[in-house]
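Students often ask why inverse folding is considered easier than folding. One informal answer: many sequences map to the same fold, so there is more than one right answer. In these notes we will look at a single instance of the problem. The structure comes first.
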């Protein structure tokens, strides 16, 4: 597989905490899927968890080259964890359509956070053109 794009984003965790405090469920439902909310809910560091997923979504929008606009919904990008805890991406809606158009077959992400910051890096992968 070839790397065809990269995106990175840094999020201020207190900013996410402020959004959750100010807008509550409205913000959470607009930005995070039910699976993402379930993953963060009940954790001692739920704000950091939300901030990491928010950073991942921003990084993915950068790698597809769109930013958040048009028909794109935050929930078109879902960041969950496999049984080992590794983050995984599932695309739907407009973001999935754009990714397919770009030839993106898989997105690999990495997320890390502290109490103050969350950062995510996303790499778009496509089939190698060698041997075709």
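Output (designed amino acids):
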């Amino acid at each position: 597989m070839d790397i065809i794009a990269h995106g990175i984003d840094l999020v201020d965790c207190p900013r996410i905490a402020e959004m959750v405090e100010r807008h509550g469920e409205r913000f959470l439902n607009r930005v995070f899927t039910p699976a993402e909310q379930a993953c963060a809910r009940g954790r001692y560091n739920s704000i950091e968890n939300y901030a990491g997923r928010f950073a991942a979504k921003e990084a993915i929008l950068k790698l597809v080259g769109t930013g958040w606009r048009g028909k794109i919904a935050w929930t078109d990008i879902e960041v969950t964890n496999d049984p080992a805890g590794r983050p995984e991406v599932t695309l739907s809606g407009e973001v999935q359509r754009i990714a397919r158009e770009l030839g993106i077959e898989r997105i690999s992400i990495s997320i890390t956070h502290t109490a103050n910051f969350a950062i995510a890096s996303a790499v778009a992968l496509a089939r190698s053109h060698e041997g075709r």
